[in-house]
């Protein structure tokens, strides 16, 4: 069979949309479809999804991507070898094994309803906020799945009884989708991969299994948790009733980990994905590096049951592209996200305006859930172009904050440099089509930013993992980053060092103004 007759499917389930992309042997997309789904905001700070709507979005995307590829003359029906899955992390679902129905809406990663529960645990546990860091690498935070699961156990009527009966099970979105894809109530597989498991606060980074001490401390029943597997292995076949059936699911990674594979990030190399939030990961190789500067220690990937584990330092930013959506949907300053580049380009600076998008608090490296959004420096001179540019700068300042912490934690030995002795930040995600954003990022970092020819590296990473497990791809092909760099766009800094330092100082002052605002009167 020729390379042109071999295909890998990639299911990319994000925070606001689902996509299914079909790649050929040469990692070129031959068919794709995307569907947006509903975001629910029941109260201030609460964010939910309907798990059944997500399942239906997968069904639609699969069918239409297949139709599109077939219409282009590709024999996908006979050539599809495997499917990889990548997903929004931390988002939490509990459901009934017997009915297949969710017992509550999915609680999304950015939801902050567990703030009071976090404060309670911090006071009660001897280690305070960092009580579980030694085992899982994560602080106690609203961000992670364990706290969301505790809230569900405390607040969903009948859930504890269903757990005792063995009917209620837990999973992140990858687990929910794999269970449905492999049969659901008819023996669906209850599994998760270790990248997603590492984001629950319940997995031990060293043993790569659920941490019994943590489960006991939090009172979470182990029997409702999925089995943990690697990122690249044959998990099970897609069941009858889906647009694609009998094909193995052989790759599964959380979205940011998939992007690391798609970007071919080896030890010492970092990537930043710009989506609803922004997520910066630095591959630390087979060593877990504990952060002293507000970052998370996590799994990068494990590409096979017997493959070595690569770990990472991560900095997670809650609001990046979501701030652009806010300008569009809530303020009406722009009518589409793509308009922000033109609007922001009408001015050469923000005119002294600084915007801190702490809509639901601040993640790394600040970890302040009492922060709220602020826009400072406004004068009569300020117009919507200044605001638009300040929103773009806010994304880049947050990435710089994280990278500065990474440089401190990893040190010179932990970073790979280019031939020109420069640290290169690989970037991806929908927002990176914005050239102004990329130039601002390079300017504020004072180092180059590298954008690949294909910015959808998350879906590509899942396809690579799936293809690796069934022999379509080889690991040395996946990590042949030299060839990929030849096709990349590189943005080099042009901002003067003195002005860069002044802008960073002003940003830090703006961030400090966002603290202690969670209890402002309505």
Give your account of this protein's structure:
The mean pLDDT is 92. The strands form 6 sheets. A 7-stranded mixed beta sheet has the order 15-16-14-13-19-20-21. Strands 3-2-1-5-12-11 form a 6-stranded mixed beta sheet, with helices on both faces. It has a two-stranded antiparallel ribbon with strand order 4-7. Strand 19, helix 14 and strand 20 form a beta-alpha-beta unit. Helix 13 crosses helix 14. The protein starts with 6 loop residues before the first strand and ends in a 9-residue tail after the last helix. It is α/β, with parallel strands linked by helices. Helix content is 34%, strand content 20%.
List the helices and strands and how they pair.
Elements: E1 7-13, E2 17-24, E3 29-36, E4 48-49, H1 51-71, H2 76-79, E5 80-87, E6 92-96, E7 106-107, H3 115-124, H4 133-136, H5 145-155, H6 159-164, E8 168-172, H7 173-181, E9 191-193, H8 194-197, H9 212-218, E10 227-229, E11 232-237, E12 248-254, H10 255-262, E13 270-274, E14 278-285, E15 296-301, E16 310-317, H11 321-331, H12 339-344, E17 354-356, E18 374-376, H13 384-410, E19 425-428, H14 435-445, E20 449-451, H15 457-469, H16 475-478, H17 481-486, E21 489-491, H18 497-513
Parallel strand pairs: 1-5, 5-12, 9-10, 13-19, 19-20
Antiparallel strand pairs: 1-2, 2-3, 4-7, 6-8, 11-12, 13-14, 14-16, 15-16, 17-18, 20-21
